[in-house]
Amino acid sequence: MRYRYVMLLASSSLVLSTAAMAQTGAQTGGPAMSDTPAVQDATTVADILVTARKRTERLQDVPISVNVTSGEELASQDVRNLESLSGSVPNLHIQATPGNNAIYIRGIGSSPGNLAFEQSVGLFVDGAYAGRGRQFAAPFLDVASVEVLRGAQGALFGKNTAAGAINITSNGPRAERELATTITGTVEGDNGFEITQIISGPVTDKLLVRLAGKYSDNEGWLENTTTGDHNPGREDLIGRAVIDYLASDTLSFRLKLEGARQELTGQPMSSVGPGQSKSFTRATTQGVPDYDDTNSFNGVLTINKDFANGVTLTSITAYSAFDYDKQIDSDFTTQPLLRTVFQEDFNQISQELRLTSSNEGPLTWIVGAYAHRNEIDMHQNSHVLMGPFDGASDRLFNQTNESYSIYGQATYAFNDHWKLTAGLRQTWEDKSADQTRSTTGAVPPTWVNTPLHGQRSESQLDPSVQVQYVVDRDMMFYASYAKGSKAGGFVGAQSTGGQDSFQFEGETSQSIEIGTKLTLLDGRATVNLAAYTSEFDDLQVSGFNAATNAFITSNAASAKSKGFEVEGTLRLTPSISLSGSAAYNDAKYDSYPTAPCIYRNGVAPPANCVEDIGGTRLPRAPKWSGALTLNVDHPLDNGMRIQADATVRGRSGTYLEENLSPLSYQEGFAKADLRLGLVSADDRWTLALIGRNLTNEWTASHSFGTPFLAGSQTYVVDPGRVVSIQLGLRY
Question: Can you give the pTM of this predicted structure?
Answer without folding.
Answer: 0.89
